[in-house]
Amino acid sequence: MKTSALSESSRPVWDLFVRVFHWTLVGTVLLNQFVLEEGETPHEWAGYLAAALVVARIVWGFIGSRHARFSDFFPTPGRLRQHLQAMRSGRPEHHWGHNPLGALMMFLLMGLVLALGVTGWMQGTDAWFGEEWLQELHEVLANALLLSAGLHAASAIVMGRIERTRLVKAMVTGTKERY
């Protein structure tokens, strides 16, 4: 939710579930990409864990705390337009939760993780085992996830400076601070 006149410099924003979800998902993605062997059982289980985390986060997006709920930050065309206009004018809006572009990135990342889970699962079935196009799609999705996650991390740092908010620290402590 946007706040124009701020009377406070910090606020609890990310609940424990959101923070555990975020960092566990980061861990499973990094393990699967850089540590675990493709096609091996630990790689598969880490992928299933990542997909299950996203499903749990989707549920939490409807029943969780205020800033975890999708209704708090859903990126409607109007919200996106307003956010981009404020950025272009040099007067960025402050959002205690996700800003509209951050919300779009969140949905993209979750969609990629789910697509990876489905394509990974499909490769283990009799019907799809050994299909080269499916293996290639899974690899393209994995690369898109890494690229998007890198953009997400860089954007959190840049937007934190623009909005004068400690975004990365907030995902650790749960409290968003303005400076």
TrEMBL record:
It is found in: Cell membrane. SUPFAM superfamilies: Transmembrane di-heme cytochromes. Residues 13-174 form the Cytochrome b561 bacterial/Ni-hydrogenase domain. It comes from Hydrogenophaga pseudoflava. The chain crosses the membrane at residues 12-33, 45-63, 101-121, 141-162. One of its GO terms (molecular function) is electron transfer activity. GO terms for cellular component: plasma membrane. This is Putative Ni/Fe-hydrogenase B-type cytochrome subunit.
